[in-house]
Write a structure and sequence with these properties.
The protein is mainly β and 420 residues long. The chain contains four helices and 25 strands.
């Protein structure tokens, strides 16, 4: 008798899977595009105008957009374009900045030998080969400059298609900002891969191209034991058209010029001036607490104006220098007390608070005379002293503080005592 049991569900499943596999055997789909690694956008972009020079700073990318490292980067490029800074949707795209702008700097960067050999962010540092080449290290700070000339001041003549937004909207009227606004120059940086592909662009920084304020004159420098005081004469924006003193001051149409503020620079090393003011100060004075005796300090001042959302800084004024010499004596010691004992008088006093006090000189004299002479041949560092003297004689004491530069204080208040 034949076995007429129904085939099991497993049988049908196996049959279907076999048919499916057979029908697809040898069939090829479209190839998947290779994963292209691109560097992240350069970070920390800053652009500061000083006179007719714009200084651009940023950090070289060290990772890719997929958070792997090292970055597939061979160079970094800086672009600038003089054009109105318009709100969305009329903002220029990254492609338009590259196409219509100017490449103002190109910086070589150490690149990986094989860009596809990367490590994840949490992998050990020795998982992959280090980038190679003669360029800057990945993650290094970059500094570049652009000189502003007449060509830079001219706005780029954008085609109508470039001025339109992505939805095709055309702005009405000329591409100009509000009345009286100066032209703006926008800066952006981008990393370029080994195959010449651009990564995402950095943020953009717009710098006003208005004339800078005049440079201040040389500052005056004075100091005491606590701080260096730097002061200068305030400057004002030009009020004539340059044709002579007999011409009436021009009346500027539009908004008034902004208030002038100042940045203070340490010019002790002129090849690398150090800006001391975190923000421009409206006061024509500055206090520098970095006192180091014997050092030479030089200062210069730059005037600044905030225009169109950015800051314009003048050329540096002439520097003034001064060598810091300690001519300031310490304060007189306080709390001197005399304690009589058998054949001696003990002295005690409060320590001075100045950091440069080298020691103390004990002075003694006969009570009837009033003239005091040093008892200690050299300054002592302790604030106690035992003076062996004859019994029954009254003596008067005072203490003088001496600093490391040899300056001596006024004598302390006197103390009188008689040894037993």
């Amino acid at each position: 008798m034949k076995d007429r049991r129904r085939p099991s569900f497993a049988f049908f499943a196996a049959f279907a899977l076999s048919a499916f596999s057979t029908s697809d055997c040898g069939k090829k789909g479209p190839p998947l595009p290779p994963l292209v690694k691109l560097p992240v956008a350069p970070a920390d972009l800053a652009a500061e105008r000083r006179g007719d020079v714009v200084e651009i700073r940023f950090t070289v990318p060290a990772t890719n957009t997929d958070n792997t490292r090292p970055a597939n980067i061979e160079r970094a490029e800086v672009y600038a374009i003089t054009a109105p800074v318009l709100p969305p949707p009329l903002t220029l795209t990254d492609d338009q900045i590259v196409r219509y702008g100017t490449k103002v700097a190109e910086i070589a960067v150490k690149a990986p030998r094989n860009p596809n050999l990367t490590a994840d962010a949490d992998d050990p540092g020795d998982e992959v080969e280090a980038p190679e080449g003669s360029g800057l290290d990945q993650g290094a700070p970059v500094r570049a400059e652009e000189d502003l000339d007449l060509d830079v001041l001219r706005p780029v003549d954008l085609p109508a298609s470039a001025a339109a937004s992505k939805d095709g909207h055309q702005p009405e009227g000329p591409l100009l900002g509000p009345f009286g606004d100066p032209p703006m120059r926008t800066y952006a940086a981008v990393g370029i891969s080994k195959r010449g592909k651009r990564g995402p662009m950095s943020k953009r920084i717009a710098v006003p191209l208005a004339p800078p304020p005049p440079a201040p004159g040389a500052p005056s420098i004075s100091y005491d034991e606590r701080a260096i005081s730097v002061s200068w004469k305030e400057v004002s924006a030009p009020t004539t058209d340059g044709r002579g003193k007999d011409v009436l001051p021009a009346r500027v149409l539009g908004p008034p010029r902004p208030e002038i503020a100042y940045n203070v620079y340490d010019e002790t090393h002129p090849e690398a001036p150090l800006k001391l003011t975190a923000e421009p100060t409206s006061d024509a004075k500055y206090s520098d607490t970095r006192i180091t005796w014997g050092e030479k300090r030089c200062y210069s001042i730059r005037a600044t104006e905030k225009i169109g959302g950015g800051t314009v800084e003048s050329d540096p004024g002439p520097a003034a220098c001064k060598t810091l010499v300690d001519t300031f004596p310490p304060t007189a010691p306080k709390g001197l007390a005399a304690i009589a004992s058998e054949g001696a008088i003990g002295l005690i006093w409060d320590a001075n608070t100045e950091k440069d006090v080298a020691g103390y000189v004990v002075m003694r004299g006969a009570a009837s005379d009033g003239t005091l002479q040093p008892v200690t041949p050299a300054p002592i560092q302790e604030t106690v002293y035992r003076d062996p003297v004859a019994s029954g004689v009254m003596y008067t004491y005072a203490v003088v503080a001496v600093d490391k530069a040899g300056n001596t204080s006024q004598p302390s208040a006197r103390a009188t005592e008689t040894a037993r």
